[in-house]
Amino acid sequence: MDLKGKVAVVTGSGRGIGREIAVYLARHGATVVVNVKKRIEEGNETLAEVKKYSDGMMVQADVSSRSGAKLLADQTRRQYGRCDILINNAGLGIGMPFLECDDRLIEKMISSNYLSAVYCTQEFSEIMPEGSSIIMMASFAGIRPMMYLSLYGSLKAAIMKLTEYLALELRSRRIRVNALAPSIVKTKMGESLLDYLHMTEEEYASKHTLTSSIIYPEEIAGAIGFLLESPNITGQTLVIDSGQSLMGDLFM
Ligand SMILES: NC(=O)c1ccc[n+]([C@@H]2O[C@H](COP(=O)([O-])OP(=O)(O)OC[C@H]3O[C@@H](n4cnc5c(N)ncnc54)[C@H](OP(=O)(O)O)[C@@H]3O)[C@@H](O)[C@H]2O)c1
Fold first, then answer.
1. What spacing in Å lies between the alpha carbon of 213 and ligand 1's midpoint?
2. Distance (Å) from CA 69 to ligand 1 centroid
3. Among the four 23, 103, 169, 200, which has the fewest Cβ within 10 Å?
């Protein structure tokens, strides 16, 4: 895959899946805009990795707000004039019994997991040329319910439906829109979910997957590459779940 001359923006790329995607895209030649909410050091670490392969910059902006998404798009426009690949990766995975979720948490979950993708897609669409791609980070929790992930899972389900709607609407601009729905990925978020479930990675892999393995961020980055390279895939969600969907109900 040759992404030379393309500009990619990866929201929430200070660590975890976002960092892996940012570095992967740089390795394939893209200029990469790294984005963090607060942790500038993590963003700088990702940027240093990106710069081993390509050009890039880091923008601190909270994309769960309209102003943050606009800031990220404005800085990208000013520096590079365009965005060919938008990865709506930023998200917040908090498990909590539904009846204990207070208004602050509800609003934070909605803005971090859903509105961030809405705001970024709107703000970036003006600088996305024909042939561009948008990829959303959904989750397997949006496909099969998992205990105490009611807000997170239902918002990820909304992201998958939004992906279909946007694929329809943005086809007039020749922009493809797809999503990825991974099960547990080995990142800070994935590890905190396993802690919450009092389960080790080994237990999860051996008892709840068909592949005997947790997912590594590298595999998610590779799936992003596959979607970018597939001109006739749009409006789809690619599920990467270690076979978990065939394993009965986990976390019930
Ligand atoms: N790990 C999994 O098991 C898993 C499974 C399925 C789907 N996913 C999805 O994959 C995506 C990445 O997850 P991850 O595991 O890499 O999570 P992670 O390790 O928690 O990293 C998330 C990154 O996103 C940033 N971020 C969060 N909200 C942001 C905002 N409003 N503006 C800008 N940056 C923001 C975080 O920065 P701060 O620390 O500053 O907040 C952090 O750098 C998320 O959408 C997640 O829901 C993860």
1. 21
2. 16
3. 103
